[in-house]
Amino acid sequence: MSLLFLGAGLALWFWGTWPLLEQRSYLSKLHKLSVSDTLGSGLMLLGLLLRIPSQWPLLALALLGLVVWNTIFGYVLARCSQPAEVNQR
Amino acid sequence: MVFLLSCLFRLLLWTLLTADLSGVNLAIGVGLALLLPHARGPRQPMAPALRALWRSLIAVPLAYGEALALIGSGDREEESWIERPAGDPRHRLLIFLEVLAITLTPFTIVLGLSNGPRGPHYTIHQLRPRRGKPEEVQP
Questions:
Q1: Span B41-47, average pLDDT
Q2: Which of residues 13-32 of A touch B (CB under 8 A)?
Q3: Interatomic CA distance for residues A17 and A14, integer angstroms
Q4: Is-contact B102 B94, C-beta < 8 A?
Q5: Distant-in-sequence, close-in-space partners of A71: CB < 8 Å, separation ≥ 6
Q6: Which of A64, B38, B81, B108 has a 20 to 30 A CA-CA distance from B6?
Q7: Where are the domains of chain B?
Q8: Is there a contact between B77 and A87 if contact means CB atoms under 8 Å apart?
Q9: Is the ipTM of this complex over 0.95?
Q10: Average of per-residue pLDDT across A68-75
């Protein structure tokens, strides 16, 4: 079961990272990167949680930090990509 | 109430980090939670923040569903800019949780918060699978 989560997380990583190399809009790349960064890594941590349950406090902390940090960092990158007048409205 | 919630959250992080539930360690955690600086400002209402917290939790399974929808769509996606009403910008916790819930889902990313004539609203960039049949490419 843990291998399933780890494999699914790895698949999401590749799916979300590959568009970085393509000709797409910046925001479109950010949408897909959030899939690999947050959701893919989340699945991997769940896989690790099943594999080494004795380390659950640190893995739970990592999962919480990952979801909050990655999501807010995505928001900061998206906001900074906008012209100054949009941000100052 | 928000002060208490903030202290409990700090204590949770401390116990997860140290993985030690002994009395001494909990006392250190409580001390740290109380002594570390707390946000100042207007009183933060609890009910909207708890609703936003619930929406943030619901956003996690929703995010996986949206990720699957994006993966299933191939390259047939459409981008759009939408606006969505926001909570009171003075309530920082509420805004933080709303931005988290919206940006966590792969379809939407918050670009900013504006105060217009219709009240505060988020400017959101949306990437959704295109509806209908794919356009035929002319040879």
A1: 78
A2: 15, 25, 27-28, 30-32
A3: 5
A4: no
A5: A34, A38, B100, B103, B104
A6: B108
A7: 1-38, 45-129
A8: no
A9: no
A10: 92
Residue with tokens 């843990």: A2
Residue B87 banded pLDDT, cuts 50, 70, 90: confident
Measured between CB atoms, which of B13, B67, B125 is closest to A78?
A: B125
Contact A28/B127, CB-based, under 8 Å? yes
For B73, residues 6+ apart whose C-beta sits below 8 A from its C-beta are: B129, B130
Question: How does residue B133 score in pLDDT terms, banded at 50, 70 and 90?
Answer: low
CB contact under 8 A, B67 and A71: no
A76 in B contact zone (CB under 8 Å): no
> Token pair 């459409």 is at which residue?
B78
